[in-house]
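[agent] plan:
  1. take the single chain provided in the ticket
  2. run structure prediction with default settings
  3. attach structure tokens to the ticket
  4. add a short note for the reviewer (M.T.)
[agent] executing step 1
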Amino acid sequence: MNLLILLIPILFSLQHISVRIGSERAETLNGIYVSLLVSTVLFSPSILNPTIDRAFIFYMSVAGILQFFFARICLYLAISRIGANLSAPLSATRIFFATIFGVFLGEMITLNIILASILIFVGIFLISRAEKRRDYIGITLAVLTGFFASLSSYLIKFGNSIEYNPVFASFLGFAISTLLLTPVMRGRSLRYTKIFALGGVLGAIAHLIRYIVLKYEPVTVVEPITSAHPLFTLFFTAVFLREKEVFTFRSIFGTFAVIIGIYFLILLK
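[agent] step 2 finished; step 3 output follows
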């Protein structure tokens, strides 16, 4: 099972690489649509085992829109603007936002939260200054990815408390997100989007594995491993996209600062 968990960050990292490569030839929005469409088709067999509960459908639909529509749009656009190895650690701040939401819901602010917040903000500061030409829109989009994903996680938790049907829940999110984007795609060409389709498959499999292992492994095991995806992204971009990505002391140190901050939040609660 531990080896299966390790596939999650690797698949997410490869998804980031595919988006980075695809955005060089095709419009990112077209690629987002193709990735959503492919993911919807992959999860469509789940309609044979649906959950017919209004509250479940509501929570999982909204969670899906936040994760697969807003967060995915923000992430893909961020990758197309600032690259994969800068977007990955910024989007991983979803755990930081989830912790902040927990504070508003009544959880206490601890020394670990303060130290983690400092590390994460230092990492964001360094990453935002890794390029000579700073793209604050791309940076903001990457951080918003984490924000929307963390909101989605809370709603998924509410939905799972009603019934555990992760495959159908994922299908709802992908299908509704695809429908929302369909009107915008009228008249657009889907040429050169095959690599985005591959990214959609990789992301869908990663989400499915995450749901599966969470049934057998505690969150404290799954989340730290999943949150390591920026390190895998850094490695893969160094191997495959060395000339196209940003590799500076600030970007690398910033990535490690964000990851260490996230581990403070997860492991030292």
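[agent] step 4 note for reviewer: The radius of gyration is 18 Å.
[agent] ticket updated
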